[in-house]
User: Which sequence fits this backbone?
């Protein structure tokens, strides 16, 4: 395959534009002999004559003009590459793959993407993959996502050399009660007040563990009357009077109930779940990833202020 030397092609293009070796040398801050030597080497590499004498000067051969027609496409592509690279270094280009559990997608990732889109300068392309909180680190470790949103309960320890962890927010858990429940209007409601209730939560996984742990911290083991993983199903059962459930504050407005369910903020024994972002060690310094992390932090801060 023919060897193409971009630097020497630029010298050839400058000679075409300037007309003489001397003018080319002046434009490129080279000596005339260095220009001639570089073009001689380029001709040898390409295997075609590039220059021919014309009086006391030289002119480009037909082969040289053919070479330059192709070289112009190369120069244009390199200019685009330079522009893209400059954008990448400013965090304006590149792709960031985000793995996040369902409520984090709607409450954190989507608002962060909107925030990036609303900024004055372009942002990186964000690709979202919904994943269970415990699954996110496996995806991150395997290189299938670049940034993972998970729960601290499922995070590796801070000493794990594979990941950098960034706390985002402490998400309070409220309790969902049927609208006619005797405790729906009780002042200063505590989680312990619900120890005799039928509970609705997942049969396994993080939400089962969070609900069980919160209730045990409040001094009782919850009686699981029904098992469901999706908020639509859980809240539908609460609305029907089939039980009570803990609901994260960051569950999006579209998933929150409007009629038939009362959301109560727990007082002294209010449980929380901690949401964290994780990247592979060192990746947080990548401009695109850093911009997405900054947007997530800003959204999380707004969420805390609203709550």
Assistant:
């Amino acid at each position: 395959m023919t060897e193409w030397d971009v630097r020497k092609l630029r010298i050839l293009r400058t000679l075409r534009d300037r007309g003489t070796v001397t003018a080319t040398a002046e434009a490129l801050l080279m000596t005339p002999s260095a220009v001639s030597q570089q073009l001689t080497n380029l001709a040898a590499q390409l295997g075609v004559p590039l220059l021919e004498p014309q009086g006391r000067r030289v002119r480009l051969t037909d082969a040289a003009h053919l070479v330059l027609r192709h070289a112009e496409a190369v120069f244009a592509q390199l200019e685009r590459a330079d522009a893209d690279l400059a954008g990448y270094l400013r965090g304006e280009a590149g792709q960031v793959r985000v793995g996040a559990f369902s409520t984090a997608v709607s409450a954190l990732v989507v608002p962060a993407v909107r925030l990036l889109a609303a900024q004055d300068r372009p942002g990186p392309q964000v690709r979202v993959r919904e994943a269970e909180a415990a699954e996110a680190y496996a995806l991150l470790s395997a290189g299938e996502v670049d940034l993972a949103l998970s729960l601290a309960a499922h995070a590796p320890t801070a000493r794990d050399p594979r990941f950098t962890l960034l706390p985002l927010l402490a998400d309070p858990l409220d309790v969902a009660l049927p609208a006619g429940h005797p405790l729906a209007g009780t002042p200063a409601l505590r989680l312990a007040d619900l120890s005799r209730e039928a509970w609705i939560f997942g049969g396994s996984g993080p939400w089962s563990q969070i609900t069980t742990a919160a209730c045990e911290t409040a001094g009782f083991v919850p009686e699981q009357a029904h098992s469901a993983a999706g908020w639509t199903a859980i809240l539908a059962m609460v609305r029907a009077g089939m039980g009570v459930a803990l609901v994260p504050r960051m569950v999006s407005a579209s998933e929150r109930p409007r009629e038939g369910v009362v959301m109560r903020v727990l007082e002294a024994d209010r449980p929380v779940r901690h949401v964290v972002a994780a990247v592979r060690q060192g990746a947080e310094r990548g401009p695109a990833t850093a911009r997405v992390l900054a947007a997530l932090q800003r959204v999380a801060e707004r969420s805390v202020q609203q709550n």
The chain is about 40% helix and 20% strand. Residues 62-89 form the longest helix (28 residues). The first strand starts at residue 51 and ends at 54.
